[in-house]
Design goal:
InterPro entries: Efflux_drug-R_Bcr/CmlA, MFS, MFS_dom, MFS_trans_sf. Belongs to the major facilitator superfamily. Bcr/CmlA family. This protein has helices at residues 3-25, 31-37, 42-70, 73-89, 96-124, 130-159, 162-182, 197-208, 211-241, 246-270, 276-299, 305-331, 338-362, 370-389, 401-406. The protein folds into two domains: 1-182, MFS general substrate transporter like domains (Growth Hormone, Chain: A, Up-down Bundle), CATH 1.20.1250.20; 196-408, MFS general substrate transporter like domains (Growth Hormone, Chain: A, Up-down Bundle). 80% of the residues lie in helices and 0% in strands.
């Protein structure tokens, strides 16, 4: 493959992979403005984030079989067209419920880009090249939460919150054109591939019976729900309670993203001395301690802007160690059903994330407490899952160091 073609492929696939993270994070600085314009509350606006998570959770299970049945490009075109349609309809919303529904539709569309980009890396690149390409994609996905809210903050301050959806719609149009004219069809459609529910569900049930999968997938997903609790409540906490500007919020979000990304990068070095299981155990205990301290400070009104940022950073740093190792351990027992296991874990993460963001939105908008409360509950429930689930794992398959590094 020519270097120029190689570069364009990675650029397009990386952009496709980044669409979901940009869609989640870019409009966060606009929560207060959206609530005012739509005569609603920030908590209700946060449900549009929850509906996006639910859409991603459902879409993860939908697109895998479609990509195998119809090839990579047709489902990708459908997903991008659906995303563009929903994005521009967001400009016409007059009610917060319309935004909540359209964000769900937008998420179903964006799922196609995430699933297709991963599948096409496997199709287009050799076994030797794939890890490097996946690393490039992971870097783009990791950097997106740092760039999106900051860019969104400036865009909303200058033009208003609806222009975020204009930007996202135009971004998706460029991706659709690049996919049509620059991406090759990397997989021959399989007309014999069955889309009947029974064989698909059988694969999922086979995965769910594995104790190592459900133990570590639950740990990964439950602790990840703490991240979603932070994401969905952070606009209210920082911009309404601490009165940070939209652009200031974007920079805080970027700073906190560094804690998560940095810890996941440090993980590759720690794996030289500790197994994935030990890292998960120690990081989970530390996360319980930090989140409990955060909750105690919140309940006693001891928090200020800087201590809040500090506690969130510590929670996210622990998550950066837990998530890649728990994900790798949950997938380690599988060779045949790795795709189904990966889809199930992704759906579980987003489903529980949606639940956590809904729970946060049910509480008062005038207190920091809901954020550390949900984060503390997530950490302690995950620790219980580890203690109970470990009893049912008879022959634990240790994740390779490479898998635990790549999983983040």
């Amino acid at each position: 493959m020519a270097k120029k073609q190689h570069f364009y492929l990675i650029l397009i696939l990386g952009s496709l992979a980044a669409l979901g993270p940009f869609s989640i994070d870019m409009y966060l600085p606009g929560f207060v403005d959206i609530a005012k314009d739509l005569k609603s509350t920030e908590s209700t606006v946060a449900l549009s984030l929850s509906s996006f998570f639910i859409g991603i959770s459902a879409g993860q299970l939908l697109y895998g079989p479609l990509l195998d049945k119809f090839g990579r490009k047709k489902p990708l075109y459908f997903g991008l067209a659906l995303y563009i349609f929903a994005s521009f309809l967001c400009l016409a919303v007059t009610d917060v419920n319309q935004l909540i529904v359209l964000r769900f539709v937008q998420a179903i569309g964006s799922c196609a880009t995430a699933v297709a980009s991963v599948a096409m890396v496997r199709d287009l690149f050799s076994v030797e090249e794939s890890p490097k390409v996946f690393a490039s994609l992971m870097l783009v996905i990791a950097v997106s939460p740092m760039l999106a809210p900051t860019a969104g903050g400036y865009l909303i301050s200058a033009l208003g919150w609806k222009y975020v959806f204009v930007f996202l719609g135009l971004m998706a149009i460029l991706m659709l054109l690049a996919s049509i004219f620059k991406l090759p069809e990397s997989y021959k459609p399989d007309p014999n591939y069955s889309l009947k529910p029974k064989p698909i569900l059988t694969n999922f049930f086979t995965v769910l019976k594995e104790p190592q999968f459900y133990t570590y997938a639950l740990i990964s997903s439950i602790t990840f729900s703490g991240l979603f609790a932070y994401v969905s409540s952070s606009p209210t906490v920082f911009m309404k309670i601490y009165e940070v500007s939209k652009t200031g919020y974007g920079w805080i979000f970027a700073l906190l993203s560094i804690a998560f990304i940095g810890a996941s990068q440090v993980n590759s070095f720690i794996l030289r001395w500790f197994t994935s299981k030990k890292i998960v155990t120690y990081a989970l205990i530390a996360q319980c301690i930090f989140s409990l301290m955060f909750l105690i400070f919140a309940l006693n009104n001891w928090l200020n802007l800087y201590s809040t940022i500090g506690f969130i950073a510590l929670f996210l740093a622990c998550l950066g160690l837990i998530n890649p190792n728990a994900a790798a351990l949950s997938l380690a027992p599988f060779s045949k059903n790795a795709g189904s296991a990966s889809a199930l874990m992704g759906a579980l993460q987003m489903g529980l994330g949606a639940l956590a963001s809904v729970m946060v939105s049910l509480f008062s908008e005038h207190s920091v407490v809901p954020m550390p409360l949900v984060m503390t509950a997530a950490a302690f429930i995950a620790l219980c899952c580890l203690l109970i689930g470990s009893r049912f794992i008879t022959n634990e398959v240790e994740a390779s160091g490479d898998a635990a590094v790549a999983a983040h």
